Amino acid sequence: MEQFGIQPLTEEIAKRLPHSHRLVRRGVIFGHRDFELVLEAIEGGGEYAVMTGIKPSGDFHLGTKLTSEEFIYFLSLSPRARGFFAIADLEAYADNKIPLEESYRIAVSNLMDMLALGLDPKRVYVYRQSQEMPVLKLAFIFSRSVTYNTLEAVYGPRPFGLYLSALVQAGDILNPQLPDHGGPKPTLVPVGADQDPHIRLTRDIAKRYREEFGFLPPAATYHKLLRDLTGQAKMSKRNPMGILYLNESLESARKKVMYAFTGGRATAEEQRRLGGEPEKCVIFLELLSVHFLDDDKKLGEWYWECKSGQILCGECKARAWSVIERWLKRHQERRAKMRDLAERLLEEKTLA
Ligand code: TRP
Ligand code: SF4
Q1: Dihedral, CA of residue 202, residue 208, residue 210 and residue 213, to nearest 10
Q2: Ligand 2, CB within 6 Å, residue ranges
């Protein structure tokens, strides 16, 4: 935060939010840039955009759930908020060689999840990068003033497709401020901390093109990078037990939860004597606190039961699974009904 100038998301800021969210209360969303601008719009009834994108490289999992929940939350804070959602099919091609037709299918599936998570289809503009001429034009315009040296300094030496994707992403983020979408406005991009290089680059670009387009530098909120279920720092498809997909079978999800990394002690005797370590435990932190248990009081009780050695990991995991199972079942039932709506939204871009 110090090195790159990310501001902490303080309690004073949290208090000004019209309604709270567990991800803010629990410090999962920990930092921001220029979020005050968006707060002022919320408080003053001004228009603002919430913008995000997802690389359609696979089914929804806990990581994409997090970004979507934030997107939906920040949209819910004012009736004047407008959502912009980019399907990053060009990036998926540049980065993962996924053909555009396959991205399309994945995007429908991803949108079904977002709708099931509560996205209001009337308040969002959805598009695919490959089909969005204004975004591609912006990327080209920006390419005029971004040098190879800058890109290499920000991203390291990478294939040129990734540099192009970065310019397209800058186009995504500034697209809501084009005249077609009502012109310059505060724009919030809720992302994982790993996306900060893109935010910094886009903020620089916005300043450079201020004369020409009137851009305000985009604001951002940042969430922490979470471990996978096995406790690895980074999710990887090479470690399938680490990733919980929102539409996977309950049986397979249950196995993953039971296999998850815990803060348990070496023996039951030791755990009764010393207590568990919830602050190290994926079941407690990532699964209950970040994702599945909204109730602060229940979460607090759970913490102390672990900490005091009253509960052991086997029983605790079974109990956690019943919470997760209930959530997944409900999500999957809702999701199954969303295919038509998701396809329509993707074809028509907006249903408003
Ligand atoms: N680069 C993002 C990712 O890796 C996807 C993305 C594309 C994005 N365009 C965006 C994120 C605009 C935020 C805003 O998932
Ligand atoms: Fe984690 Fe539960 Fe074990 Fe505590 S008892 S370490 S919360 S699995």
Answers
A1: -70
A2: 262-264, 276-278, 281, 283-284, 306, 311, 313, 316-317
**Other CB atoms within 10 Å distance of the CB of residue 123:** 17
Distance CA 31, CA 29 (A): 6
Contact 175, 134 (CB under 8 A): yes
Residue of 50, 51, 55, 60 with the most ligand 1 atoms within 8 Å of its CB, for mutation? 55
Ligand 1 center to 67 CA (angstroms): 10
Give the tens place of pLDDT for each residue, 155-173.
999 999 999 999 999 999 9
DSSP 230: T
CA atoms within 13 Å, Cβ hemisphere of 111? 30
Distance 302 CA to ligand 2 centre (A): 9
Closest ligand 2 atom to 306 CA: 4
Q: 31 CA to middle of ligand 2, Å?
A: 28
Quick one: pLDDT band at residue 114, thresholds 50, 70, 90? very high
Q: Ligand nearest 272 Cα, by number?
A: 2
Pairing of strands 29-33, 7-8: antiparallel
Above 90 in pLDDT, residue 237?
A: no
Are 326 and 251 contacting, i.e. CB atoms less than 8 angstroms apart?
no
Which residue has tokens 């229940």? Answer: 298
Question: For all residues of the chain together, what is the average pLDDT?
Answer: 97
Using a 6 Å cutoff on CB, does residue 191 contact ligand 1?
Answer: yes
Q: What is the pLDDT of residues 182-233, one digit of tens each?
A: 999 999 999 999 999 999 999 999 999 999 999 999 999 999 999 999 999 9
Question: Does residue 54 contact residue 70 with C-beta atoms inside 8 Å?
Answer: no
pTM over 0.90: yes
Q: Residue 56: nearest ligand to its CA? A: 1
CA distance 104 to 90: 11
